[in-house]
């Protein structure tokens, strides 16, 4: 059973429907105890980092999240769920994250350009993955595959070896990470059509 954490923020039903489409049993839960009984855990997220980390704390999710990661259960972070795994974010001030992956969450720099035109922030729409490491999430996924992004901030890990894929939007940024049982993506697999659904299926198959 896959537990999708409901802490009041995130497109939870679309993530659940994505797993259902690939034949996987996934439940949306606001009960932290359910995480401890689940085989796999998903942390989605949409919104401001500050509000999300507060909701995780108030909902009693922080300790169970850290416990299931330490126990080695497959764990997937999506969009803000990736950013929350990091040490701190500079969104609306400096706010501490879960510190599972040492590093920072930074805003895209002002004035980024491509082909002489200024790039808009947030980075929204389809963009290509440059796969750096054979993450379990990317089994059967080729470098150059297009996935769907919506974000104004990106993660910068202290240890570059955790980077599983990058994407270019004015700068090369970390689009996905992999360390042991933890995989996380800045893009939305559940909105990335066949490639994204294949990634959800890959996560469900992680040992």
From TrEMBL:
<keyword id="KW-0378">Hydrolase</keyword>
<dbReference type="GO" id="GO:0005737">
    <property type="term" value="C:cytoplasm"/>
</dbReference>
<feature type="domain" description="Glutamine amidotransferase">
    <location>
        <begin position="4"/>
        <end position="204"/>
    </location>
</feature>
<dbReference type="InterPro" id="IPR017926">
    <property type="entry name" value="GATASE"/>
</dbReference>
<comment type="function">
    <text>IGPS catalyzes the conversion of PRFAR and glutamine to IGP, AICAR and glutamate. The HisH subunit catalyzes the hydrolysis of glutamine to glutamate and ammonia as part of the synthesis of IGP and AICAR. The resulting ammonia molecule is channeled to the active site of HisF.</text>
</comment>
<feature type="active site">
    <location>
        <position position="188"/>
    </location>
</feature>
<keyword id="KW-0963">Cytoplasm</keyword>
<feature type="active site">
    <location>
        <position position="190"/>
    </location>
</feature>
<comment type="subunit">
    <text>Heterodimer of HisH and HisF.</text>
</comment>
<dbReference type="InterPro" id="IPR010139">
    <property type="entry name" value="Imidazole-glycPsynth_HisH"/>
</dbReference>
<dbReference type="GO" id="GO:0000107">
    <property type="term" value="F:imidazoleglycerol-phosphate synthase activity"/>
</dbReference>
<keyword id="KW-0368">Histidine biosynthesis</keyword>
<feature type="active site" description="Nucleophile">
    <location>
        <position position="79"/>
    </location>
</feature>
<comment type="pathway">
    <text>Amino-acid biosynthesis; L-histidine biosynthesis; L-histidine from 5-phospho-alpha-D-ribose 1-diphosphate: step 5/9.</text>
</comment>
<dbReference type="Pfam" id="PF00117">
    <property type="entry name" value="GATase"/>
</dbReference>
<dbReference type="GO" id="GO:0004359">
    <property type="term" value="F:glutaminase activity"/>
</dbReference>
<dbReference type="GO" id="GO:0016829">
    <property type="term" value="F:lyase activity"/>
</dbReference>
<dbReference type="GO" id="GO:0000105">
    <property type="term" value="P:L-histidine biosynthetic process"/>
</dbReference>
<keyword id="KW-0028">Amino-acid biosynthesis</keyword>
<keyword id="KW-0456">Lyase</keyword>
<keyword id="KW-0315">Glutamine amidotransferase</keyword>
<protein>
    <recommendedName>
        <fullName>Imidazole glycerol phosphate synthase subunit HisH</fullName>
        <ecNumber>4.3.2.10</ecNumber>
        <ecNumber>3.5.1.2</ecNumber>
    </recommendedName>
</protein>
<dbReference type="InterPro" id="IPR029062">
    <property type="entry name" value="Class_I_gatase-like"/>
</dbReference>
């Amino acid at each position: 059973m896959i537990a999708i954490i409901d802490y009041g923020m995130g497109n939870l039903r679309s993530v659940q429907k994505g797993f259902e489409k690939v034949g996987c049993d996934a439940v949306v839960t606001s009960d932290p105890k359910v995480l401890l009984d689940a085989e796999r855990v998903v942390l989605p997220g949409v919104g401001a980092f500050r509000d999300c980390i507060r909701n995780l704390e108030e909902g009693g999710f922080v300790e169970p999240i850290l416990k299931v990661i330490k126990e080695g259960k497959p764990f997937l972070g999506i969009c803000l769920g990736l950013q929350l795994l990091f040490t701190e974010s500079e969104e609306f001030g400096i706010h501490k994250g879960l510190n599972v992956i040492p590093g920072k969450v930074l805003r895209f720099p002002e004035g980024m350009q491509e082909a002489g035109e200024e790039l808009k922030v947030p980075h929204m729409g389809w963009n290509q993955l440059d796969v750096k490491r054979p993450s379990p999430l990317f089994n059967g996924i080729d470098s150059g595959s297009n996935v769907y992004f919506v974000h104004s901030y990106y993660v910068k890990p202290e240890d570059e070896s955790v980077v599983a894929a990058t994407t270019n939007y004015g700068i090369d940024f970390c689009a996905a990470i992999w360390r042991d049982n933890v995989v996380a993506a800045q893009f939305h697999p559940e909105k990335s059509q066949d490639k994204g659904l294949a990634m959800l299926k890959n996560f469900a198959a992680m040992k």
